[in-house]
Design brief:
Blueprint (H helix, E strand, L loop, with lengths): L3 E5 L4 H16 L5 E7 L3 H4 L8 E4 L2 H11 L3 E4 L4 H9 L4 E5 L10 E3 L3 E2 L2 E2 L4 H10 L16 H13 L8 E5 L12 H15 L2 E4 L6 H10 L5 E2 L7 H8 L4 E5 L3 H7 L4 E4 L15 E4 L20 H4 L3 H21 L5
Parallel strand pairs: 1-2, 1-4, 2-3, 4-5, 5-6, 9-10, 9-12, 10-11, 12-13, 13-14
Antiparallel strand pairs: 7-8
Helix pairs in contact: 1-5, 1-10, 3-4, 6-9, 7-8, 7-12
Length: 349
């Protein structure tokens, strides 16, 4: 009988947010006496302030992860990271039960595996939350929903509002957030002037003051978007920024405009309307989880999706030909859905 379960959490912000329903279901499962969430230290802020925080075991490197697994000696491990290395370390730690998806050539390292469907020898795109749910099901863990669930404390929320007010946001003034960066690679990048055009239009139509932010190293891109904006956009490039502060910002936003990256899943966790730009990736893999998100891509390109970090053809058409008008149309669709949802729930809009 297995009493102690370790869960190897994903390494990407978006995947980690998508994993939260599974992590919560595991902690609520009476079949486990103990659950540890093995997580890279720089991602701890994503799970902070909620019920998952107390189960986190942070690791700093692959060597630290292996040593931690050997020290914890769990009866089983659920690998929500699809990397070969995570499975190899679980195997080297001699964990008896190792469950996960049969990806990255690691099937032989697993005792329990979900094999993704194929057609004609090629893998059929399956939404990431569905694959993680099926892997968790191998160990009897079944989340009731796949919508991400995050928490952020009131102090962090107040801190973020205070920063915005210091930078010019009026008291009670609604704001939109833009995260133009894409850690995956340049193939996901959209032009700063396109971001600015959409933000300006939303400001004109809805009165949302644009707030532009990004991760480490994305300061020039943030500043470029703000320079292109005609509306009174606020840059956070010179402010303290981390994942917990980003949660505090998004939890209070009226809208999020984002590349196909992690913040979109944070917005879904807080029910914030969001439009995400999809370029080289399968839209099926990054399919929206809830009605609060709308994905938009340039239709009709034979070269997309290529799944490459940089455009192999050099033209980058999947992003350069994704026009602001298409994004604004997507914004109105998601806003209409959210308004309908709020009406049905009896919430004043």
């Amino acid at each position: 009988m297995m009493e102690h379960l370790a869960i190897r959490a994903p390494n990407w912000v978006g995947d980690l947010a998508m994993a939260t329903p599974i992590l919560r279901a595991a902690l609520a499962n009476d079949g486990w006496g103990r659950v540890d969430i093995i997580l890279r230290g720089h991602l701890v802020g994503v799970l902070a302030d909620g019920p998952l925080e107390s189960a986190i075991v942070p690791v700093t490197s692959s060597a630290d992860e292996l040593a931690t697994l050997k020290r914890l000696a769990p009866d089983g491990i659920l690998l929500l990271s699809n990397s070969f290395g995570s499975a190899l370390r679980a195997w080297r730690a001699r964990i008896p039960v190792r469950a996960g998806t049969a990806l990255s050539g690691r099937r032989w390292l697993l005792t329990h595996a979900v094999v993704p469907p194929t057609r004609g020898g090629r893998r059929i795109p399956v939404p990431t939350p569905h694959l993680m749910r099926d892997a968790a099901g191998l160990l009897g863990i079944w989340p009731r929903t796949l919508v991400p669930a995050l928490d952020v404390n009131m102090e962090t929320r107040r801190e973020q509002l205070g920063t915005l007010e210091r930078l010019g946001l009026g008291a009670g003034e609604p704001f939109s957030v833009c995260c133009p960066g894409a850690a995956f690679g340049s193939a996901k990048s959209w032009q700063p002037e396109y971001f600015a055009h959409v933000l300006d239009s939303l400001y004109e139509q809805h009165g949302w003051r644009p707030v532009v932010t990004g991760g480490p190293g994305e300061e020039p891109l943030v500043e470029a978007v703000v320079r292109c904006a005609k509306s009174p956009a606020i840059s956070l490039s010179k402010e303290a920024r981390d994942l917990e502060r980003l949660k505090g910002l998004l939890a209070q936003a009226a809208f999020l405009l984002v590349s196909d990256s992690g913040p979109r899943y944070m917005a879904e966790a807080f029910g914030v309307p969001c439009v995400a730009l999809v370029g080289p990736n399968f839209i099926e893999v990054t399919a929206r989880i809830s009605e609060t998100c709308e994905l938009v891509r340039r239709p009709g390109l034979e070269c997309a999706p290529c799944l490459e970090r940089t455009c192999p053809l050099g033209h980058h058409r999947c992003m350069t030909e994704l026009t602001p008008d298409l994004v604004l149309e997507a914004a109105e669709r998601v806003l209409a859905r959210c308004a309908s949802r709020d009406t049905e729930q009896g919430v004043a809009t």
